[in-house]
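Bump. Still looking for Cardiolipin synthase structure tokens.
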Amino acid sequence: MSGLWTVLLGLALLALVASCVWQAVVSARTPQGAIAWAIFLVAAPWIAVPAYLVLGQHKLRSKTTSYRQTVAATNQRGMPAGPQEPHIVSSERLFVFSRLGGMPAQAGNSADLLINGDATFAAIFAAIDGAETYVLAQFYTIADDALGNAFADRLIAAADRGVKVWLVCDRVGSHGLSTAYRHRLIKAGVQFRDPRAGSHRASRLHVNFRNHRKTVVVDGQWAAVGGHNVADAYVGRDPVMGYWRDTHLALQGPVVSQLQTGFIRDWHWYTGDFIEDQLDWSPSPFAPGIPAVTVFMGPTDDHDTGALFFVAAITGAQRRVWVASPYFVPDVDTLSALKCAALKGCDVRILLPARADHFLPWLAAFAFFDEVRHAGVKIYRYKDGFMHQKAMLIDDDLSAVGTANFDNRSFRLNFETMVVVHDRDFADRMRDMLHTDMTHSDRLDRNLDSQHIGIRVGARLTRLLAPLL
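Sorry for the wait, here they are.
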């Protein structure tokens, strides 16, 4: 009888593996993703099947539908003050990003680089302390540590003086956030929506689809977006990671309303509540100000907006493509775009951290270095601590800062935000910032075959999983 049960169990496992492989093949958005899952499922089913059940299926149709309904519902209700039509500009450089993100390119903005955690949180805390009517805050990671509690103290102080506060974090990124921390905020009157709590639609979203956005909006007049999360590591207090190199962007002008729109969409998706009539939709423009546009991207989009964002930026370059990202796991399209840009004579540079915070993406990057270097792409590895910024400079006039990494997760799986700025003076500041980072980096001049055997073998194996990283 035990032999019969063994046979039946084996057949059941075989059927489950076959079913998962079939689902991976028919539902994957790219052939590479389908192949990666199929190989993983067949080679290591005892690990791959549970992983696929948790992480697989590129898009959950019901969640895609629900988020699109949220976007439609918020768009249909419109903004109380109306769109900022006088500030909409016609910019060939921003046109494709406007189409991708569904937001108009608007002039009348100011943009300031916030380099590293001290500058970023000094600006965010000052804005919260000066808030008069409301604060919208969204982060991938909020930790119950010194910085996290300083952040909570300011939100609570704002709520105590009558400011309305809305706060969102991600269930995966903030998995360690204590119940006491959440209760302290809620007790003070902060409208806090942790996706782990309650039965809202987003709480049932696959853990593979994460809200990686990091946005603060104050009174509809000031906003910040970029790579920093709310945790001690992001101000260099982690003894393991050490110095933390990151970049945020402080904004004023009409683009603030675009970031505000992204927040209310996510809030409605999490809660079903509309809050736009409680917000200010008339940000004070700067004269003349600079043109900018926000690009929201995520797994519920009609297109792979994240991947198309980078492809559009790179293929539109004529002289320069500088990309700073903590991870480098390109897909076929972004890899080809980088090579084509280098082959046509652009100065293409990729700035990455020399050390790893997530080992598999760090290892997989080595499998792509030779291919892009042979086309003329320069790889720089930042050596003064860990670099986490997400920034891009195209030619001498186009810059982007936000939350999207140069990897498949940001291309297709995460909800991300990038702000694109069309301005030469701002691009000069971006150039100086990134050039300084490169002086604290080593240029990679070794091919894969000259690396340690662990990297040689591991990189080639990990590349098979690139669509999942």
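The first helix runs from residue 2 to 27.

Edit: fixed formatting.
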